[in-house]
Amino acid sequence: MLNIIFVKHGDKYSAEHVNTLHKQLLPYYPDAMYHCYTESPDGINIPVIPIFKKPSVRKWWNKLAMFSADMPLEGQCLYFDLDMKIVSDPRRFINLKSFKDLTILEAYWKVGDPKYSIKHAYDVYINSSVITWEAGEQTHVWDHFCTNKDYFMRKYAGIDRFLVHENIPHKIFPDGLINSVGNLPNRTAAIDMYNGMTYEL
Amino acid sequence: MSYKENLYKNCIKAIEKIYTDSKYNSEIDLFRSFDIINSVNANQIASKEHLTEAIVPVLSNIKKLKHAAILGSWYGLLGVMLREHVSDDVYIDNVDTDPETKTIGQQLFRHDRTNFFVGDAVDHILDRLKNYQLIINTSCEHMEQEDVKLITQAKDKNAVICFQSNNYFSVDSHINCSNSLDEFVKGLDLIEVMHASVLEVKPENYERYTVIGI
User: Fold this and answer.
1) Could you read off the pLDDT of B105-114 as tens digits, one per residue?
2) What is the rounded distance in angstroms from the CA atom of residue B150 to the CA atom of residue B144?
3) C-alpha distance from B74 to closest chain A C-alpha (Å)
4) d(CA A171, CA A104)
5) What are the chain B neighbours of A53 within 8 Å (beta carbons)?
6) Which ipTM value was assigned to this complex?
7) For FRET with B105, which of A105, A128, B111, B172 sits at 20 to 30 Å CA-CA?
8) How far is CA B26 from each of CA A7, A140, B22, rounded to the nearest angstrom?
9) Could you give the 3-state DSSP secondary structure of residue B5?
10) Which residues of B make CB contacts under 8 Å with A?
11) Would you say A90 and A189 are in contact if contact means Cβ atoms under 8 Å apart?
């Protein structure tokens, strides 16, 4: 069973972002179970998982809740950020045999730039806009976050930095899955990603 | 030396230790230095002084004050200020979920009856309901509202609470801000409100709310 999950918290993205991404992925994953983890289900055309009332977190930190043992998912899990446009078949880059590991994108636009490896800046060369994992196998991510979440949210600007600097084991997707539209050089990829930009449909 | 001078001196020593240790151990968390600095910055000092000024007139009304709890105490700044106004035989218990708050808190200030507990604030209070005559929570914006109310309702009926919150919605960990002092007061649902005030915080432009009552 393949689960495809979106997380929508707050009002940065609309129900239409969820529905559009769902439509774009359907031709490639027609048999997947689609879910949206959100506190505002209005207008969303796929099944909704209500955001946990406790512990309550805000913004992108809700992505970590996907790894919780309380998340009602079974089988393989594939997550997409909502600021993504599916351009061509992403399946070439997402190996359904390797969901055993936590797999994340490489932020290719940062690779080679030494400023991202300054230790106490806690920056990273990964990007969590696409993630794969097996349900129930990454519960340590959420559990660890919950041990000291306020401190982690002060220390790290986002979940990518948390994953790397808290030494969460992970692998990287093959190159070519995403093109980060806001970063040069532009490249041909299966998904255009609008990270750091306003993504209007 | 004033308590503030002593506190800053100890903060500098704690930061020096972090840096020195980091020269021989690559796992040392350098962010802690920055966190210590932020815990005693001008806004934190102003906020805790505002609370202390509000609570001092009430202290004499608290019958047989023996134990005070400070929830979400961070490295214990408020406890240091409160110690200046209570007798030495009063226990001040600092409670925080971050294990390092105990280690660092004890470096910043030592007193025989100032303690640091690591754990969930609600669990701590529920396990010791009758212990505290004074319960202070400077971090209501970090706690679920149901937990804030659980503390106010489960405490000993004569225990005085002194709670703070704010309308600083832009901080990631602020999951329970209030839009106004009035909203914060209503949410606490107290039998008697002894004090309610607003402190304007610049340059971040937000309000800190302080409420004391039963």
Assistant:
1) 999 999 999 9
2) 10
3) 10
4) 6
5) 144
6) 0.94
7) B172
8) 35, 24, 6
9) helix
10) 29-31, 35, 38, 97-100, 142, 144, 146, 172-176
11) no
